[in-house]
Specification:
single chain, alpha/beta, D-Maltodextrin-Binding Protein, domain 2
């Protein structure tokens, strides 16, 4: 007989629909996500295959990451969303505030080599109210028409040797980490410093050094555009958008992949979701290594499971090996910084307030 945990792993491995046929007949699952290319790839690799395997249709909604939208649904008692994908730091805050459902790790299948999910996932992927969907990174990209190469984050802040405007995210997240890394701080010391007043002051002093030459972006597409249009010569940006510019649009961008900030998005279930049972089935399905590997082969967002990364292949239409573009490749990960989601969940509001004040001066 299966133990409860083994049964959950079995359901994830074989597809719940083959064990519990007809359970969800006539119902549709609502999944809320970011829109754009993110949704396009999710539909290709998660949503459509889930419907094909289970017969359960998926209704796609879009959001901008505003947790107030989820809170308002729960507090009004009019919940229409089932699954939401968003920054994994949201999972902690949503749990603490009581507007997300808890997710049992028992629904997760074993890894591609039969390893336990707890050891197969990246650190921090399995939260009480969220399961890592994929990893993504914020990277530095530059215009190779202006500079053949840059070698480090220090070069990003060196206006003398590399003149021209910079693009940075209009937020403390990533900006403060890049500032300290560009000031010579090692990856294992970044968050230790940011937990101190002295460390935060140091990060803002580094940002001061390029503030007058900075163009602030608010979306991944904007970061890509200002670099492509020559408005800036270097910019931070989301890896998926920048890699797509190279592969799809043939842009002459260079990428500092070994100095990335690796973050994760998570699948979450809204408290009192109308289709909570289907939501858990979907998360079990999307968390299988084979689905994560398919997603990692079609775009540069990285699997949150190590066994899935090993299964990533060439892009299905471009024929390009996708592994070197992934933040979680062994080569890129060893010199990059894994974003501390607990830090941003705890201190994000205070640092946002200081960042806004600094920006306005």
């Amino acid at each position: 007989m299966f133990s409860r945990r083994e049964f959950g792993q079995f359901l994830g491995a074989v597809g719940v629909s083959s064990v519990l046929p007809g359970l969800a007949q006539g119902r549709a699952l609502t999944v809320t996500t970011w829109g754009g290319n993110t949704t396009r790839y999710q539909k290709l690799d998660f949503f459509d295959p889930f419907t094909a395997e289970t017969g359960i249709p998926i209704k796609i909604e879009e959001w901008n990451g505003n947790l107030g939208l989820i809170r308002a649904q729960v507090q009004s008692g009019k919940v229409t969303w089932d699954v939401v994908v968003g920054d994994i730091a949201f999972a902690k805050r949503g749990c603490e505030d009581g507007f997300l459902e808890k997710i049992s790790p028992s629904i997760l299948s074993v890894g591609g080599n039969r390893e336990a999910a707890s050891t197969d996932y990246l650190p921090g992927s399995i939260q009480e109210c969220g399961i890592g969907a994929y990893a993504w990174s914020t990277i530095i990209a530059w215009d190779k028409r202006k500079f053949e190469r840059i070698n480090s984050l220090g070069d990003f802040f060196n206006l003398s040797a590399y003149p021209g405007k910079r693009g940075m995210r209009k937020a403390p997240q990533s900006s403060l980490e890049f500032a300290l890394l560009g000031d010579g701080v090692s990856t294992d010391q970044v968050y230790k410093l940011l937990r101190t007043k002295e460390g935060v002051d140091r990060a803002f002093r580094k940002l001061d050094s390029i503030k007058s030459q900075t163009v602030w972006w608010e979306s991944g597409s904007q970061a890509r555009r200002i670099l492509a249009d020559g408005e800036v010569v270097m910019s931070s940006g989301f890896s998926g958008s920048m890699v797509s510019a190279i592969l799809d649009d043939k842009r002459q961008f260079g990428l500092l992949l070994g100095s990335s900030l690796i973050d994760q998005d998570a699948w979450m279930v809204v408290k009192n979701a109308p289709n909570k049972d289907l939501a858990m089935r979907f998360i079990a399905f999307a968390s299988r290594p084979d689905r994560m590997a398919a997603h990692g082969s079609s775009n540069p967002t990285s699997p949150a499971r190590q066994s899935a990364f090993a299964m990533v292949t060439k892009h299905p239409t471009l024929g390009v090996d996708m592994k070197p573009y992934h933040a979680t490749s062994p080569e890129n990960r060893k010199t990059s910084l894994l974003v501390d989601t607990d830090f941003w969940a705890d201190r994000g509001d205070d640092l946002q307030e200081r960042f806004n004040s600094w920006l306005s001066r």
